[in-house]
Write a structure and sequence with these properties.
Elements: E1 9-27, E2 30-44, E3 49-55, H1 62-71, H2 73-76, H3 83-93, H4 101-121, H5 126-129, E4 137-141, H6 150-161, E5 167-171, H7 177-191, E6 196-200, H8 207-217, E7 224-226, H9 234-243, E8 248-250, H10 256-266, E9 271-274, H11 281-292, E10 299-301, H12 305-312, E11 321-323, E12 336-338, E13 341-343, H13 356-362, E14 363-364
Parallel strand pairs: 4-11, 5-6, 6-7, 7-8, 8-9, 9-10
Antiparallel strand pairs: 1-2, 1-14, 2-3, 4-13, 12-13
Helix pairs in contact: 1-4, 3-4, 4-11, 6-7, 8-9, 10-11
């Protein structure tokens, strides 16, 4: 393989799978019982295939997203694999429709697959292609602790820290704040004082209710409060951040860096959380990391731990990786996590390789 191979897009293969979750997640914003994923394979004339996946949140969106990715093939077939050029071309094509929602998800899936193909072509892990080095990335376990009540939350919390995690996320948004506090105290008692507790309201509160609850939670020693109110209410989040002593965390629902810039300008949060799919793939993430670097704002990841580990390793204000195992059942080599750290492998690209037998089992046609 030449040092700088030229790759040409031959086609795109998109497949929908609905993967069972080991711990179905009930949140203040709704229940996630399965992982509806669209697997994207960007095939090239040179035989290199770039792989990625996007998360559809609900099975209802699986088929439309899969079809949209497939529909993009004629627009880039025959093009050179150059992620920034591809992004500019597709963004221009969808300027009137807008880059949010299913469109944004499809474009991000192609962007991630293109970067994966480039890294594979030069036989480097993605992190090295981006100028970094593989290193352990501190992770918190986000594979459970939905709205399940204090007693069950305590049991599940002990299970989540057992593999060596030093931090876990607790979903809140119970009908009254007393239950929120009771759940936090039960989890704290179960795991001890040395475990960090992140909390997530999943946009379930009004601004005034969020201020009231955050003031009470300030006394519980939690690490952050995530998305207490509607995600795109940046001024509302800024008001909450001014009143709360506990850091406010948002960002997973920014559709691209323009949303991100508006949020940062409003002072909407103390920490930020990038979702590689919604921020615009690898290309969007790199721009987002550049936005927070001069501000010194800690940047964490949202979902997609396999690729996020590579991206956090080249993010100057790298904070926490959110670990979920939702894609693991369809991967030949799931992301390794040891002692609460995600380990980036030496495989070229992102390191995604589909377990085709599992894909066949969970395929949605």
């Amino acid at each position: 393989m030449p040092a700088h191979p030229k790759l040409t897009i031959r086609g795109i293969r998109a497949r929908a799978v609905n993967v069972p979750m080991a711990r179905p997640l009930q949140t203040g914003g709704g229940t996630v019982g399965t992982a509806p994923l669209v697997l994207v394979d960007l095939e090239t004339d040179e035989g290199v295939t770039g792989c990625s996946y996007v998360f559809c949140y609900t099975p209802i969106a699986l088929k439309p997203t899969t079809q949209l990715v497939t529909n993009l093939e004629p627009l880039i077939k025959g093009d050179i694999v150059a992620p920034v050029a591809i992004e500019q071309k597709l963004q221009q094509r969808f300027r009137l429709l807008g880059p949010q929602g299913l469109t944004g998800m499809a474009l991000a899936g192609i962007d991630m697959a293109a970067w994966d193909a480039l890294a594979k072509a030069v036989e480097l892990p993605l992190v090295k292609l981006l100028g970094g080095e593989p290193r352990p990335i501190t992770a918190y376990n986000s594979c459970g602790l939905g709205i399940i009540g204090a007693e069950r939350a305590a049991i599940e919390a002990r299970e989540l820290v057992a593999p060596g995690f030093q931090a876990i996320k607790v979903r809140l948004g119970y009908p009254d704040v007393k239950t929120d506090v009771a759940v936090i105290r039960a989890v704290r008692k179960a795991v001890g004082d040395d475990i960090l507790l992140m909390t997530d309201y999943n946009q379930s509160l009004s601004v005034s209710e969020a201020v009231m609850r955050c003031r009470l939670l300030d006394e519980e020693g939690i690490y952050w409060v995530e998305e207490p109110t509607v995600a795109d209410d940046f001024l509302g989040h800024a008001a909450i951040a001014r009143e709360a002593k506990t850091p406010i965390q948002i960002g997973e629902n920014w559709w691209g860096t323009h949303d991100m810039a508006k949020s940062l300008a409003a002072g909407a949060s103390d920490f930020v959380m990038l979702d590689v799919m919604k921020i615009g793939g690898v290309t969007g993430w790199l721009r987002g990391a550049a936005l927070v670097e001069p501000r010194g704002i800690p940047a964490s990841s949202h979902l997609f731990p396999e690729i996020s580990a590579h991206l956090l390793a080249v993010t100057p204000t790298c904070h926490w990786l959110e670990y979920v195992d939702w894609a693991s059942p369809i991967l030949k080599h799931p992301l390794r996590v040891e002692n609460g750290h995600a380990l980036i492998g030496s495989a070229p690209g992102i390191g995604l390789e589909w377990d085709e037998q599992a894909v066949k089992r969970f395929l949605v046609e």
